[in-house]
Amino acid sequence: MSEPIWKKGGQGEGPGAAVMRFLAGEDVVLDRQLIRFDIRASQAHVNGLARIGLLSADEAEVLVAGLAKIDEQLVSGERVLDERFEDGHSALETWLTEQLGPLGGKVHTGRSRNDQVAVALRLYMKDRLAALRAVCTEVAKVLLQRAKAEGELPMPGYTHLQRAMPMSVGLWQAGHAEAFIDNAELAALTHRWLDASPLGTASGFGVNLPLAREAVAEELDFARLVVNPQYAQNSRGKVELQALGALAAATMDVRRLAWDLSLFTTSEFDFVRLPDGWCTGSSLMPNKRNPDVVELLRAAHGVVAGARVELESVLSLPSGYQRDLQATKPPLLRAFESGLQALALVPDLIGAIEWNETAMRAAISPDMFATDLSVDLAREGVPFREAYREVGMRLKDITADDVVASLENRVSPGACGALSLDLLAERLSAIEEI
Ligand code: ARG
Protein backbone atom coordinates (compact mmCIF):
# COMPACT_ATOMS: atom_id res chain seq x y z
CA MET A 1 0.00 0.00 0.00
CA SER A 2 1.21 3.51 -0.71
CA GLU A 3 1.84 5.74 2.30
CA PRO A 4 -1.36 7.35 3.62
CA ILE A 5 -1.38 11.08 2.86
CA TRP A 6 -1.93 11.77 6.56
CA LYS A 7 1.29 10.02 7.60
CA LYS A 8 3.60 12.48 9.40
CA GLY A 9 6.95 12.27 11.06
CA GLY A 10 7.35 11.44 14.74
CA GLN A 11 4.49 8.96 14.75
CA GLY A 12 4.38 5.34 15.75
CA GLU A 13 3.76 2.59 13.27
CA GLY A 14 0.07 3.37 12.73
CA PRO A 15 -2.53 0.80 11.74
CA GLY A 16 -1.33 -2.49 10.29
CA ALA A 17 -2.40 -3.95 6.97
CA ALA A 18 -5.53 -5.70 8.30
CA VAL A 19 -6.81 -2.55 10.00
CA MET A 20 -6.07 -0.44 6.93
CA ARG A 21 -8.00 -2.94 4.79
CA PHE A 22 -10.91 -2.71 7.20
CA LEU A 23 -10.86 1.11 7.11
CA ALA A 24 -10.84 1.16 3.33
CA GLY A 25 -13.43 -1.59 2.85
CA GLU A 26 -14.66 -1.41 -0.73
CA ASP A 27 -14.23 2.35 -0.61
CA VAL A 28 -11.31 2.68 -2.96
CA VAL A 29 -13.03 0.53 -5.59
CA LEU A 30 -16.23 2.56 -5.27
CA ASP A 31 -14.17 5.72 -5.66
CA ARG A 32 -13.60 4.67 -9.28
CA GLN A 33 -17.12 5.94 -9.87
CA LEU A 34 -16.40 9.21 -8.09
CA ILE A 35 -12.84 10.04 -9.03
CA ARG A 36 -13.63 11.88 -12.25
CA PHE A 37 -15.99 14.16 -10.30
CA ASP A 38 -13.25 14.56 -7.70
CA ILE A 39 -10.86 15.61 -10.47
CA ARG A 40 -13.29 18.24 -11.78
CA ALA A 41 -13.81 19.59 -8.28
CA SER A 42 -10.05 19.59 -7.64
CA GLN A 43 -9.47 21.62 -10.79
CA ALA A 44 -12.08 24.17 -9.69
CA HIS A 45 -10.51 24.26 -6.21
CA VAL A 46 -7.08 24.95 -7.74
CA ASN A 47 -8.53 27.78 -9.83
CA GLY A 48 -10.16 29.12 -6.67
CA LEU A 49 -6.81 29.12 -4.88
CA ALA A 50 -5.28 31.07 -7.78
CA ARG A 51 -8.09 33.63 -7.52
CA ILE A 52 -7.13 34.46 -3.95
CA GLY A 53 -3.41 34.49 -4.73
CA LEU A 54 -2.52 31.29 -2.92
CA LEU A 55 -1.30 29.76 -6.15
CA SER A 56 0.35 31.63 -9.00
CA ALA A 57 -1.42 31.49 -12.36
CA ASP A 58 1.40 29.22 -13.63
CA GLU A 59 1.12 26.84 -10.70
CA ALA A 60 -2.64 26.62 -11.13
CA GLU A 61 -2.25 25.92 -14.82
CA VAL A 62 0.25 23.14 -14.20
CA LEU A 63 -1.95 21.57 -11.52
CA VAL A 64 -5.11 21.74 -13.64
CA ALA A 65 -3.25 20.19 -16.58
CA GLY A 66 -1.80 17.51 -14.31
CA LEU A 67 -5.29 16.64 -13.09
CA ALA A 68 -6.54 16.53 -16.68
CA LYS A 69 -3.74 14.14 -17.57
CA ILE A 70 -4.67 11.84 -14.69
CA ASP A 71 -8.27 11.94 -15.90
CA GLU A 72 -7.21 10.87 -19.40
CA GLN A 73 -5.04 8.10 -18.02
CA LEU A 74 -7.92 6.80 -15.91
CA VAL A 75 -10.23 6.80 -18.92
CA SER A 76 -7.71 5.01 -21.14
CA GLY A 77 -6.96 2.46 -18.42
CA GLU A 78 -3.31 3.47 -18.23
CA ARG A 79 -3.89 4.33 -14.57
CA VAL A 80 -6.05 2.27 -12.25
CA LEU A 81 -7.40 3.24 -8.88
CA ASP A 82 -6.79 0.17 -6.76
CA GLU A 83 -6.17 -1.04 -3.23
CA ARG A 84 -2.68 0.43 -3.06
CA PHE A 85 -4.44 3.63 -2.05
CA GLU A 86 -6.55 4.39 0.97
CA ASP A 87 -9.10 6.14 -1.22
CA GLY A 88 -9.49 8.06 -4.47
CA HIS A 89 -8.67 11.37 -2.80
CA SER A 90 -5.31 10.11 -1.57
CA ALA A 91 -4.57 8.58 -4.96
CA LEU A 92 -5.11 11.92 -6.70
CA GLU A 93 -2.71 13.77 -4.45
CA THR A 94 -0.14 10.96 -4.63
CA TRP A 95 -0.29 10.80 -8.44
CA LEU A 96 -0.15 14.56 -8.74
CA THR A 97 2.91 14.68 -6.49
CA GLU A 98 4.61 11.88 -8.44
CA GLN A 99 3.96 13.84 -11.61
CA LEU A 100 4.72 17.39 -10.45
CA GLY A 101 6.85 17.07 -7.33
CA PRO A 102 6.07 19.14 -4.20
CA LEU A 103 3.68 21.38 -6.21
CA GLY A 104 1.26 18.41 -6.15
CA GLY A 105 0.96 18.84 -2.39
CA LYS A 106 -0.46 22.35 -2.88
CA VAL A 107 -3.72 20.96 -4.25
CA HIS A 108 -4.92 20.22 -0.74
CA THR A 109 -4.49 23.78 0.55
CA GLY A 110 -7.65 24.81 2.35
CA ARG A 111 -9.57 21.62 1.80
CA SER A 112 -10.17 18.34 3.57
CA ARG A 113 -11.15 14.95 2.26
CA ASN A 114 -14.42 15.66 4.06
CA ASP A 115 -15.51 18.43 1.69
CA GLN A 116 -13.71 16.69 -1.16
CA VAL A 117 -15.87 13.57 -0.87
CA ALA A 118 -19.02 15.61 -0.21
CA VAL A 119 -18.58 17.65 -3.38
CA ALA A 120 -17.74 14.58 -5.50
CA LEU A 121 -20.88 12.87 -4.22
CA ARG A 122 -23.09 15.86 -4.96
CA LEU A 123 -21.69 16.04 -8.50
CA TYR A 124 -22.25 12.30 -8.88
CA MET A 125 -25.86 12.57 -7.65
CA LYS A 126 -26.59 15.47 -9.99
CA ASP A 127 -25.27 13.41 -12.87
CA ARG A 128 -27.30 10.32 -11.92
CA LEU A 129 -30.47 12.31 -11.28
CA ALA A 130 -30.13 13.90 -14.72
CA ALA A 131 -29.89 10.38 -16.16
CA LEU A 132 -32.89 9.29 -14.08
CA ARG A 133 -34.96 12.18 -15.29
CA ALA A 134 -33.99 11.48 -18.91
CA VAL A 135 -34.92 7.82 -18.75
CA CYS A 136 -38.23 8.53 -16.97
CA THR A 137 -39.06 11.09 -19.66
CA GLU A 138 -38.26 8.51 -22.33
CA VAL A 139 -40.46 5.87 -20.69
CA ALA A 140 -43.36 8.34 -20.53
CA LYS A 141 -42.83 9.36 -24.16
CA VAL A 142 -42.90 5.81 -25.49
CA LEU A 143 -46.02 5.03 -23.46
CA LEU A 144 -47.80 8.14 -24.73
CA GLN A 145 -46.80 7.40 -28.32
CA ARG A 146 -48.24 3.91 -28.10
CA ALA A 147 -51.37 5.19 -26.36
CA LYS A 148 -51.89 7.62 -29.19
CA ALA A 149 -51.44 4.93 -31.83
CA GLU A 150 -53.40 2.05 -30.34
CA GLY A 151 -54.94 3.43 -27.15
CA GLU A 152 -58.49 2.60 -28.12
CA LEU A 153 -57.97 -1.16 -28.06
CA PRO A 154 -60.46 -2.47 -25.52
CA MET A 155 -59.13 -4.17 -22.44
CA PRO A 156 -60.80 -5.51 -19.31
CA GLY A 157 -60.20 -3.44 -16.18
CA TYR A 158 -59.62 -5.08 -12.80
CA THR A 159 -59.95 -4.19 -9.15
CA HIS A 160 -58.97 -6.78 -6.54
CA LEU A 161 -57.72 -8.69 -9.59
CA GLN A 162 -61.40 -9.36 -10.36
CA ARG A 163 -63.03 -8.16 -13.57
CA ALA A 164 -64.52 -4.72 -12.96
CA MET A 165 -65.20 -2.46 -15.96
CA PRO A 166 -64.03 -2.31 -19.54
CA MET A 167 -61.15 0.03 -20.15
CA SER A 168 -58.63 0.50 -22.88
CA VAL A 169 -55.01 -0.24 -23.56
CA GLY A 170 -54.53 3.53 -23.73
CA LEU A 171 -55.84 3.97 -20.21
CA TRP A 172 -53.28 1.46 -18.97
CA GLN A 173 -50.48 3.02 -21.02
CA ALA A 174 -51.28 6.60 -20.10
CA GLY A 175 -51.61 5.59 -16.44
CA HIS A 176 -48.05 4.34 -16.44
CA ALA A 177 -46.98 7.36 -18.50
CA GLU A 178 -48.32 9.75 -15.87
CA ALA A 179 -46.40 7.85 -13.21
CA PHE A 180 -43.16 8.35 -15.10
CA ILE A 181 -43.93 12.01 -15.71
CA ASP A 182 -44.20 12.36 -11.93
CA ASN A 183 -40.95 10.45 -11.56
CA ALA A 184 -39.14 12.64 -14.09
CA GLU A 185 -40.35 15.70 -12.20
CA LEU A 186 -39.28 14.27 -8.86
CA ALA A 187 -35.80 13.59 -10.29
CA ALA A 188 -35.63 17.18 -11.56
CA LEU A 189 -36.81 18.66 -8.26
CA THR A 190 -34.44 16.49 -6.24
CA HIS A 191 -31.61 17.55 -8.55
CA ARG A 192 -32.46 21.16 -7.84
CA TRP A 193 -32.77 20.52 -4.10
CA LEU A 194 -29.29 19.08 -3.76
CA ASP A 195 -27.61 21.38 -6.28
CA ALA A 196 -25.38 23.06 -3.67
CA SER A 197 -21.61 23.03 -3.34
CA PRO A 198 -20.04 21.97 -0.04
CA LEU A 199 -16.53 22.66 -1.37
CA GLY A 200 -14.61 25.12 0.79
CA THR A 201 -16.15 23.94 4.06
CA ALA A 202 -13.07 21.76 4.65
CA SER A 203 -13.33 19.40 7.61
CA GLY A 204 -16.61 20.92 8.77
CA PHE A 205 -15.32 24.16 10.29
CA GLY A 206 -14.18 26.15 7.26
CA VAL A 207 -10.54 27.26 7.09
CA ASN A 208 -8.81 30.46 7.84
CA LEU A 209 -8.62 31.53 4.20
CA PRO A 210 -10.82 33.82 2.09
CA LEU A 211 -11.71 30.93 -0.25
CA ALA A 212 -13.58 31.94 -3.39
CA ARG A 213 -16.41 29.54 -2.64
CA GLU A 214 -19.02 31.14 -4.93
CA ALA A 215 -16.70 31.27 -7.94
CA VAL A 216 -15.66 27.67 -7.41
CA ALA A 217 -19.30 26.58 -7.11
CA GLU A 218 -20.11 28.44 -10.30
CA GLU A 219 -17.24 26.82 -12.17
CA LEU A 220 -18.67 23.46 -11.11
CA ASP A 221 -22.13 24.50 -12.26
CA PHE A 222 -23.72 24.41 -8.82
CA ALA A 223 -26.77 26.59 -8.29
CA ARG A 224 -25.78 27.61 -4.75
CA LEU A 225 -23.58 26.85 -1.74
CA VAL A 226 -24.07 24.64 1.26
CA VAL A 227 -23.43 27.62 3.47
CA ASN A 228 -22.68 26.14 6.86
CA PRO A 229 -19.59 23.91 7.20
CA GLN A 230 -21.16 21.72 9.88
CA TYR A 231 -24.23 21.21 7.73
CA ALA A 232 -22.02 20.31 4.77
CA GLN A 233 -21.14 17.20 6.78
CA ASN A 234 -24.48 16.74 8.55
CA SER A 235 -26.28 16.70 5.20
CA ARG A 236 -24.18 13.79 3.99
CA GLY A 237 -26.39 10.75 3.77
CA LYS A 238 -29.54 12.83 4.14
CA VAL A 239 -29.08 14.11 0.61
CA GLU A 240 -28.21 10.63 -0.64
CA LEU A 241 -31.39 9.31 0.91
CA GLN A 242 -33.50 11.79 -1.05
CA ALA A 243 -31.65 10.97 -4.28
CA LEU A 244 -32.46 7.32 -3.64
CA GLY A 245 -36.05 8.36 -2.91
CA ALA A 246 -36.36 9.77 -6.42
CA LEU A 247 -34.84 6.59 -7.83
CA ALA A 248 -37.13 4.43 -5.70
CA ALA A 249 -40.24 6.21 -6.99
CA ALA A 250 -39.23 5.16 -10.50
CA THR A 251 -38.20 1.59 -9.69
CA MET A 252 -41.41 1.15 -7.71
CA ASP A 253 -43.41 2.08 -10.79
CA VAL A 254 -41.26 -0.24 -12.90
CA ARG A 255 -42.19 -2.95 -10.42
CA ARG A 256 -45.91 -2.37 -10.94
CA LEU A 257 -45.57 -2.20 -14.72
CA ALA A 258 -43.54 -5.41 -14.68
CA TRP A 259 -46.13 -7.03 -12.44
CA ASP A 260 -48.85 -6.19 -14.96
CA LEU A 261 -46.80 -7.60 -17.82
CA SER A 262 -45.99 -10.77 -15.98
CA LEU A 263 -49.72 -11.31 -15.44
CA PHE A 264 -50.67 -10.30 -18.97
CA THR A 265 -48.16 -12.74 -20.51
CA THR A 266 -49.60 -15.78 -18.68
CA SER A 267 -51.69 -18.21 -20.75
CA GLU A 268 -54.52 -17.43 -18.35
CA PHE A 269 -54.59 -13.74 -19.32
CA ASP A 270 -52.83 -13.93 -22.67
CA PHE A 271 -53.23 -10.19 -23.34
CA VAL A 272 -49.57 -9.63 -24.17
CA ARG A 273 -46.91 -11.45 -26.08
CA LEU A 274 -43.30 -10.43 -25.65
CA PRO A 275 -40.98 -11.05 -28.61
CA ASP A 276 -38.26 -13.69 -28.24
CA GLY A 277 -35.68 -11.05 -27.44
CA TRP A 278 -37.37 -10.51 -24.08
CA CYS A 279 -37.91 -14.14 -23.11
CA THR A 280 -35.78 -17.03 -21.96
CA GLY A 281 -36.28 -20.77 -21.86
CA SER A 282 -36.06 -23.48 -19.23
CA SER A 283 -33.08 -25.81 -18.94
CA LEU A 284 -35.48 -28.68 -18.34
CA MET A 285 -38.96 -27.98 -19.68
CA PRO A 286 -38.91 -27.63 -23.45
CA ASN A 287 -42.34 -26.02 -23.45
CA LYS A 288 -41.31 -23.00 -21.38
CA ARG A 289 -41.02 -19.41 -22.54
CA ASN A 290 -40.28 -17.27 -19.52
CA PRO A 291 -40.54 -13.50 -19.01
CA ASP A 292 -37.34 -13.34 -16.92
CA VAL A 293 -36.55 -9.79 -17.98
CA VAL A 294 -39.86 -8.54 -16.69
CA GLU A 295 -39.34 -10.44 -13.44
CA LEU A 296 -35.89 -9.03 -12.84
CA LEU A 297 -37.24 -5.56 -13.58
CA ARG A 298 -39.81 -6.21 -10.86
CA ALA A 299 -36.98 -7.25 -8.52
CA ALA A 300 -34.91 -4.12 -9.24
CA HIS A 301 -36.85 -2.08 -6.71
CA GLY A 302 -35.76 -4.47 -3.96
CA VAL A 303 -32.14 -3.37 -4.37
CA VAL A 304 -33.09 0.31 -4.17
CA ALA A 305 -35.44 -0.15 -1.23
CA GLY A 306 -32.78 -2.17 0.58
CA ALA A 307 -30.19 0.51 -0.10
CA ARG A 308 -32.44 3.17 1.44
CA VAL A 309 -32.85 1.15 4.60
CA GLU A 310 -29.12 0.48 4.77
CA LEU A 311 -28.28 4.14 4.27
CA GLU A 312 -30.85 5.39 6.74
CA SER A 313 -29.56 2.95 9.34
CA VAL A 314 -26.08 4.46 9.19
CA LEU A 315 -27.30 8.00 9.83
CA SER A 316 -27.74 7.89 13.58
CA LEU A 317 -24.80 10.22 14.17
CA PRO A 318 -23.75 13.31 16.07
CA SER A 319 -22.85 16.51 14.22
CA GLY A 320 -19.78 16.80 12.06
CA TYR A 321 -17.81 14.27 10.09
CA GLN A 322 -17.78 10.70 11.32
CA ARG A 323 -16.16 7.90 9.36
CA ASP A 324 -19.50 6.08 9.48
CA LEU A 325 -20.46 8.38 6.61
CA GLN A 326 -18.23 6.35 4.33
CA ALA A 327 -20.78 3.55 4.75
CA THR A 328 -23.39 5.66 2.94
CA LYS A 329 -21.48 5.30 -0.32
CA PRO A 330 -21.99 1.59 -1.11
CA PRO A 331 -25.80 1.65 -0.98
CA LEU A 332 -25.97 4.89 -2.98
CA LEU A 333 -23.70 3.71 -5.77
CA ARG A 334 -25.09 0.17 -5.86
CA ALA A 335 -28.69 1.34 -6.06
CA PHE A 336 -28.08 3.89 -8.81
CA GLU A 337 -26.07 1.43 -10.84
CA SER A 338 -28.64 -1.34 -10.77
CA GLY A 339 -31.72 0.91 -10.76
CA LEU A 340 -30.65 2.87 -13.83
CA GLN A 341 -29.55 -0.30 -15.60
CA ALA A 342 -33.06 -1.69 -15.12
CA LEU A 343 -34.79 1.54 -16.12
CA ALA A 344 -32.74 1.80 -19.31
CA LEU A 345 -34.45 -1.34 -20.63
CA VAL A 346 -37.99 -0.12 -20.05
CA PRO A 347 -38.53 2.10 -23.14
CA ASP A 348 -37.61 -0.72 -25.53
CA LEU A 349 -39.61 -3.23 -23.54
CA ILE A 350 -42.71 -1.06 -23.83
CA GLY A 351 -42.03 -0.66 -27.53
CA ALA A 352 -41.92 -4.46 -27.89
CA ILE A 353 -45.28 -5.29 -26.29
CA GLU A 354 -47.62 -7.12 -28.69
CA TRP A 355 -51.28 -6.86 -27.64
CA ASN A 356 -53.68 -9.73 -28.25
CA GLU A 357 -56.89 -7.93 -29.13
CA THR A 358 -58.93 -11.13 -29.46
CA ALA A 359 -58.05 -12.31 -25.98
CA MET A 360 -58.72 -8.91 -24.45
CA ARG A 361 -62.13 -8.59 -26.14
CA ALA A 362 -63.02 -12.11 -25.05
CA ALA A 363 -62.14 -11.26 -21.46
CA ILE A 364 -64.63 -8.39 -21.35
CA SER A 365 -67.69 -10.23 -20.03
CA PRO A 366 -71.18 -8.69 -20.36
CA ASP A 367 -71.59 -8.14 -16.60
CA MET A 368 -68.71 -5.66 -16.77
CA PHE A 369 -71.18 -3.20 -18.32
CA ALA A 370 -73.34 -3.17 -15.20
CA THR A 371 -71.92 0.14 -14.04
CA ASP A 372 -72.46 1.72 -17.44
CA LEU A 373 -76.05 0.57 -17.54
CA SER A 374 -76.65 1.95 -14.03
CA VAL A 375 -75.16 5.27 -15.05
CA ASP A 376 -77.38 5.29 -18.16
CA LEU A 377 -80.43 4.95 -15.90
CA ALA A 378 -79.14 7.65 -13.60
CA ARG A 379 -78.77 9.94 -16.59
CA GLU A 380 -82.46 9.42 -17.20
CA GLY A 381 -83.19 10.63 -13.67
CA VAL A 382 -83.35 7.36 -11.72
CA PRO A 383 -81.63 7.83 -8.35
CA PHE A 384 -78.32 6.07 -8.70
CA ARG A 385 -78.88 3.70 -5.78
CA GLU A 386 -82.11 2.47 -7.35
CA ALA A 387 -80.45 2.09 -10.75
CA TYR A 388 -77.62 0.19 -9.10
CA ARG A 389 -80.06 -2.25 -7.47
CA GLU A 390 -82.11 -2.64 -10.61
CA VAL A 391 -79.12 -3.50 -12.77
CA GLY A 392 -77.72 -5.64 -9.98
CA MET A 393 -80.87 -7.77 -10.05
CA ARG A 394 -80.61 -8.51 -13.75
CA LEU A 395 -76.88 -8.93 -14.23
CA LYS A 396 -77.49 -12.20 -16.02
CA ASP A 397 -79.64 -10.47 -18.63
CA ILE A 398 -76.86 -8.28 -19.90
CA THR A 399 -75.98 -9.86 -23.23
CA ALA A 400 -72.93 -10.11 -25.38
CA ASP A 401 -74.75 -7.97 -27.89
CA ASP A 402 -75.04 -5.12 -25.39
CA VAL A 403 -71.36 -5.42 -24.87
CA VAL A 404 -70.34 -5.31 -28.49
CA ALA A 405 -72.72 -2.46 -29.22
CA SER A 406 -71.48 -0.28 -26.41
CA LEU A 407 -67.84 -1.28 -26.30
CA GLU A 408 -66.49 0.97 -29.02
CA ASN A 409 -68.08 4.18 -27.88
CA ARG A 410 -67.44 3.39 -24.24
CA VAL A 411 -63.72 2.92 -24.58
CA SER A 412 -62.70 5.71 -26.87
CA PRO A 413 -63.87 9.18 -25.92
CA GLY A 414 -63.81 9.25 -22.15
CA ALA A 415 -61.16 7.06 -20.72
CA CYS A 416 -58.18 7.62 -22.96
CA GLY A 417 -59.39 10.28 -25.35
CA ALA A 418 -57.17 12.76 -27.04
CA LEU A 419 -57.73 15.31 -24.30
CA SER A 420 -56.08 13.37 -21.51
CA LEU A 421 -53.17 12.34 -23.72
CA ASP A 422 -52.64 15.97 -24.69
CA LEU A 423 -52.70 17.04 -21.07
CA LEU A 424 -50.04 14.50 -20.22
CA ALA A 425 -47.91 15.43 -23.21
CA GLU A 426 -48.12 19.07 -22.14
CA ARG A 427 -46.97 18.25 -18.64
CA LEU A 428 -44.14 16.20 -19.99
CA SER A 429 -42.80 19.07 -22.05
CA ALA A 430 -43.20 21.43 -19.09
CA ILE A 431 -40.88 19.17 -17.08
CA GLU A 432 -38.30 19.39 -19.81
CA GLU A 433 -38.12 23.12 -18.99
CA ILE A 434 -37.22 22.58 -15.30
N1 ARG B 1 -13.78 7.74 2.34
C1 ARG B 1 -14.08 8.79 3.24
C2 ARG B 1 -15.58 8.99 3.33
O1 ARG B 1 -16.26 8.57 2.45
C3 ARG B 1 -13.43 10.05 2.77
C4 ARG B 1 -13.31 11.09 3.83
C5 ARG B 1 -12.24 10.71 4.80
N2 ARG B 1 -12.13 11.68 5.82
C6 ARG B 1 -11.56 11.38 7.01
N3 ARG B 1 -11.55 12.34 7.86
N4 ARG B 1 -11.07 10.21 7.28
O2 ARG B 1 -16.06 9.54 4.26
Walkthrough of the structure:
This protein has about 425 residues and is mainly alpha-helical. The protein has two domains: about 15-110, Fumarase/aspartase (N-terminal domain) (Fumarase C, Chain B, domain 1, Orthogonal Bundle), CATH 1.10.275; about 115-360, Fumarase C, Chain A, domain 2 (Up-down Bundle). The chain has helices at about 15-25, 25-30, 35-50, 55-75, 90-100, 115-150, 170-195, 215-220, 230-235, 240-265, 290-315, 330-350, 355-360, 370-380, 385-395, 400-415, 420-434; strands at about 155-160, 160-170, 195, 225, 270-275, 355. The strands form three sheets. It has a two-stranded antiparallel ribbon. It has a two-stranded parallel ribbon with strand order 3-4. A two-stranded antiparallel sheet has the order 5-6. α8 (about 215-220) links the parallel β3 and β4 (about 225). The longest helix is centred in the N-terminal third of the chain and has 38 residues, at about 115-150. The chain is elongated, with a radius of gyration of 29 Å. The two termini are about 45 Å apart. The structure holds arginine (ARG). The site of arginine has 10 residues, from α6. Arginine binds next to α6.
Report the CATH superfamily of the largest domain. Answer: Fumarase/aspartase (Central domain)
Uncertain runs are 412-416
Distinct ligand kinds:
arginine
Strand element count: 6
What amount of the residues lies in strands? under 5%
Radius of gyration: 29 Å
Structural class: mainly alpha
Architecture (CATH level 2) name of the largest domain = Up-down Bundle
Assigned CATH class of the largest domain: Mainly Alpha
Order of helices and strands: HHHHHHEEHEHEHHEHHEHHHHH
Give the overall shape: elongated
Q: Classify the fold: give the CATH topology of the largest domain.
A: Fumarase C, Chain A, domain 2
Strand order within the widest beta sheet: 1-2
Mean pLDDT: 93
